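Give me the 3D structure for non-specific serine/threonine protein kinase.
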Amino acid sequence: MRGNIPIGIGNLSSLVALELGYNQLSGSIPTSVGRLGDLQGLNLGGNKLQGYIPYQLCQLDNLAYLYLGSNQLSGSIPSCLGNLAPSLRSLSLEFNLLTSTIPSSLWKLTYLLHLNVSSNSLIGPLSQDIGNLKVVLEVDLSNNHLSGVIPSTIGPLRDLVNLSLANNNLEGPIPSSFHYLLSLQLLNLSRNNLSGVIPKSLEALSLLKHLDLSFNRLQGEIPTGGPFQNFYAQSFVSNNALCGAPRLHFPPCKNTTLEPNWKKAKYIIPGIISVILLVASISMFVLRRKGNVEVAGEATSLPQLLWRRISHLELLRATNGFNENNLLGSGGFGSVYKGTLSDGIDVAVKVFSLQLEGAFRSFDRECEMLSNIRHRNLIKIISCCSELDFKALVLNYMPNGSLEKCLYSQDYSLNILQRMNIMIDVAVAVEYLHHGYSVPIVHCDLKPNNILLDDDMVAHVADFGIAKLLGGGDSIIQTMTLATVGYMAPEYGLEGMVSIRGDVYSFGILVMETFTRRKPTCEMFVGEMNLKQWIANSLVLPDAMIDEVVDASLLCTQQEDDDHVRKRDCLSSIMRLALACCAESPEERINMEEAVATLKKIKIKFLKDAAPAAAQINSPLVQRFN
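Predicted structure for non-specific serine/threonine protein kinase (626 residues):
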C-alpha cells in the first residue's frame, strides 16, 4: 500500500490493534492516532514514514507494543513515552534517523520486555537508570553514537537474554557485574573503544552462545572456562593486546613474573630481526610486482587485513533506506542494492534475508571465501555488516550488471570478441579457485546471473553462498545443497557429489548459453533434447550447421564471405570446447587449465585470421587480452 495514513483513522475509536507494517506508506504519522484510546498494539514499521514521532502516541494508555522501526523518522525520542510504563511491553524504533540523547524517562518503562533503538544517530552516555528495566529480555542499542562507560547497573538484569551495544563510542572496561546476567545468550560489544581485561567472571554465563568483543582495545588473557570454550577468533579479532589459546590465533600469554633485562633481550632481539626481515620481504614483493605488471594482472594480491568499517546505519543511508529504486536484483538468499557511501564510492550491498533457511550459512560462507581469496576476476569484498537481525556484504559495484542482463536485454549487443573475453575472464577465475589457491574451492553455482561486468566489460565471478572447500586431500565431497537447475552437473543433481569437475560442467553450459543466447531451461528443450544435445547435433550431423544454434546477431549475414567463415569456424571451436567441459562422466571432462589454454588459442586464431588484422589487433577490446 502506498500513500499517506489518513487522518480519519483516529475515528476508529474501538480499535484494539493497528497493523500497517511492511508496506510503502509515506508522509508523517497522523496525530489523530492519539485518539485511539483502546489501542493495545501499533505497528507502522517497514514503511517510508517521515517526520517526528508525535507526542500524541503517549496518550495511548493501553498500548502494549509500539513498532515504528525501518522508516525515515527523525527528531528525538519523545520523553513522554515513559508515561506508558504500566502497559508498554515492546518498543521498536530501529533503523530510523532519530537524533539527540535517549530520554531518561525511557528507563521508567519498568515492565518493558523488548527495547530496540538500534541504527539511529543517538548520542550521549547511557544512564545508570537502565537498571530499572527489571524484567527486560532484549536490549539493542547498537549502531548509534553513544559514549561514556557501560553502566554496571545492567548486571542485575537477570532475565536479559540478548544485549547488543555494538558500533558505538563506548569506552572503559566491561563491567564485572555482567557475571550476574545468568540468562544471557547473546552479548555484542564489538566496534567500540572498550579497554581493560575481559572479566574472568564471565565464565559463569553458562547459557551464552554468541559473543562478539571484536574491534575494541581489550587486553590481557582471554578466559578459557565455561562458554569461552566454544568461541572462536572472530569473537575477539582486532584487540591487539589480547593473548590466549593457539586456536584463537592470539599470542600465548606470558608469565607475569619480572625477568632480568638479559632474559628479555632474547625475546626483543629476535623480534627486531623478524620485523626487519618482514619489511625487507614486503619491499622486495612490491618492487617485484611493479616490474611485472602483466603477470600481476591475473595474480592474487596480499589479503586485506582490515576491511573498511561500515555500519548498518551507513548502509541504510547509502541505499536510501534500501529503496526499491536502488534494487539491482534478488537471489536465493536475499537482495542486492546499489549504494553510494559518504565518500562518494558506489557499492553493491547484498542483504541476506534471515527469514530464509540457510541465509546465515550463505552469509558466513561468502565472508569466509571472499575474505581469503584475491583475483582480478573475482568479485571483491569491501566490508561486511553482521548484526543480530541484519547481515550484509558490501561489494564492488559493477556498472554493467550481470552477464544475464547483457545477454537478454535489448540495450546490449555483445559481439563474438566481447563474449570470448568474458568467458576467458570467467575461466581464469575458476582456474584460480581450482588450482591457484592453497585449498581447491568449488563455486557450485556458475551461471550468467553470477557473472558481473565492470566499466570495461571485464567479468567478475560472484556469489559464493554455496561454495565448498575441498580440504584434507579430498577431491570430492557430498552435500545436500543444490545449485541451479540446468547448470549443475549430473552427479551433483542426482547424488550431491561436489568436485571441481562439477564447476567445469557448469562452465560448459555457461559457454553454450553465452554464444547461443538460449537458457538450458528453455521451453524448446523437451524429452531427450537439451541444450548440450542441441549443440552436439549441430556439430556432428551432416545436414546441421552451427549457424542454426548460435545467436543470430553473431553471424549477421548468410553470405559465404571470409569474415562469415572465420566467425563460424571460431564458434564451432568454442562449442567443441563447451562439449568437452560437459562430458557426462566427470573423469572425461577437461579441467579449467585446459579450458583456459584452449579458449586463448581460439581467440588468437580468430584475431590472426581477421581482415584487416591490424585494425582488429589495435582495438581496445583486443588490447585487453594479455
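The chain has 13 helices and 31 strands. Let me know if you want a second pass.
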